[in-house]
Amino acid sequence: MACAAVMIPGLLRCSVGAIRTEAASLRLTLSTLRHLTLTSIMKSKRKTDHMERTASVVRREIVSAAKVCGAANESPSVKSLRLLVADQDFSFKAGQWVDFFIPGVSVVGGFSICSSPRLLEQERIIELAVKYTNHPPALWVHNTCTLDSEVAVRVGGEFFFDPQPADASRNLVLIAGGVGINPLLSILRHAADLLREQANKRSGYEIGTIKLFYSAKNTSELLFKKNILDLVNEFPEKIACSLHVTKQTTQISAELKPYITEGRITEKEIRDHISKETLFYICGPPPMTDFFSKQLENHHVSKEHICFEKWW
To answer: Which GO terms describe its molecular function (predicted)?
Structure first.
């Protein structure tokens, strides 16, 4: 499920870089797009619906056709999608989500992008990870969606990390609970792209260290753990992670064990990373985001350095 924006400070924002690569052209008829963007929104009545929760959140104007070009089961309850996006003007910032329009489904979905902006620039691909629920868009992803299924997407959200090259260097602390990892993985992947740019070109934004705290019920529900550990191993002096499991019943693999802590993320762990140069991004269930944002404020972290979203 997407994270619904709750509070976001005005920090580190800039335009996305120019797209350099060509992509396959996908087309939806104007009547189909009109159905997706207007009729679907009008028919959506659930009080916890994505469109209602995010009605006041900034969105881009572009509604782009997209085609499913890949899918995988990331956990017993989460399925990932790779979408080929048609519109060359479609772009996003690491941490944002998309309105997800499905032909024939009257409810609009809202799913956080978990890939980096660089992947879109280079391959015209975005990635989503969708948890199984009874919500119609999630049911469609898990039960109906196939390769080459066509949808439409529109970027929204005020929770993102998008620094300009001249901005002051900052450390990042990313705090994720469950599927709240999705926008934070996008930010982590973007940070890794910035590190590669610095290493290869000695140019661009100079990012500090990145620490990811990520909690899930058990290791099978820790999404994208291989991708996360690959980045930790690629940048051992810059990227670190602490993976938490709260209800583990099976043996933890030798590969994961050095990174695993049994139990919830604690206030002390987060407090140890407080500094004037650190930005905190939090995404997870409402009680979790409320707890950590309040604790950070209590320790005199500037509100402009605390960014959070809640998933529902």
So the answer is: oxidoreductase activity
For 222, residues 6+ apart whose C-beta sits below 8 A from its C-beta are 75, 214, 216, 243, 245
Between the ranges 39-48, 170-179, 199-208, where is the mean pLDDT highest?
Answer: 170-179
pLDDT per residue over 248-273, tens digit each?
999 999 999 999 999 999 999 999 99
Mean local confidence (pLDDT), 236-245: 98
Question: Which residues make Cβ contacts (< 8 Å) with residue 312, sequence separation at least 6?
Answer: 1, 4, 48, 53, 286
What Rg, from alpha-carbon coordinates, does the chain have? 19
* Residue 143 belongs to some domain of the structure: yes
Q: CATH number of the domain at 202, please.
A: 3.40.50.80
User: Are residues 174 and 237 both part of a single domain?
Assistant: yes
pLDDT value of position 70: 98
| Parent domain of 191 | 170-310
Q: Count other C-beta atoms under 10 Å from residue 117's C-beta.
A: 24
Asked if 293 and 174 sit in the same domain, the reply is: yes
CA distances from 106 to 103, 135, 192, 298 (A): 8, 11, 38, 43
Q: What is the DSSP letter of 1?
A: -
DSSP string, 18-75: PP-S--------HHHHHIIIIIHHHH---TT-HHHHTTTS-B-S--EEEEEEEEEESS
| Res. 209 pLDDT band, cuts 50 70 90 | very high
Q: Do residues 178 and 305 both lie within one domain? A: yes
Q: Which of 156, 180, 206 is the last residue of a domain?
A: 156
